[in-house]
Protein: Chitosanase (Glycosyl hydrolase group 75)
Organism: Umezawaea tangerina
Amino acid sequence: MRRPSRFGAGLLVLGAVVASTLTSAGAQADVRGPDTAARDVSAQAGPTAAALLAKLTSCSQISSGKYRSDEETSANIPVCGKNGAVWYKADLDIDCDGKVTAKCNGDTDPWFQDDTAFHDSKGAPLQADKLPYVVVPSPSGTWDYRNSGISGGGIVAVIYNNKVEYAVVGDTGPTAIIGEASYATAVDLGINPDPENGGTDGPVHYLYFKNSKVSPIEDHAKATSQGAALAQAFIDQN
């Protein structure tokens, strides 16, 4: 679920910001588990980031309004339509909700919730520090993702810093804020995954492939292989 702000509730003092900046590189090294190398390879499958971004240079707005990236920012992010997909450009805040782990729990995340909108094949909440997933805004008058062929388990190409990560739709957030993904998504993209002070202002592009679905939702290898094929089809059709 969306945090009040990527920097927590209220403004951080300058010293905390500086400390976070100085330790971010170390935090990156600490969170990369033994399965990260395999995900690094899978994140590069399919078309390049540049090839996908070349198709996202103009926006045909399908949302009736625009979203904020954080509570304190203005609403200036539209949801855009393309042939076979919808997309938007935003920041990336960290979602650590779902299964309780050493990295995602009430102590590491002040806004932690032990559930996700969509569950795995065993009916359990998703594991944010293992599964790359994105958070889609809950349905509202601004935009209802369900009317755009998007559902839980749908495939999303998350594009940042010349990298492409294939993730699934795994959680829903507030109706007015956009731009959030799981701890694992951040790690794979080289973004500080700390739920309290991590994330990035971007730009991060989120490309949702319509009527796609990974089953079981927790199968990241399947999301990557299907996502790479869908990404190539998207390029061919646009």
Q: What stands out?
A: The chain has a mean pLDDT of 87. The longest helix spans residues 14-31. The CA atoms of residues 187 and 193 lie 6 Å apart.
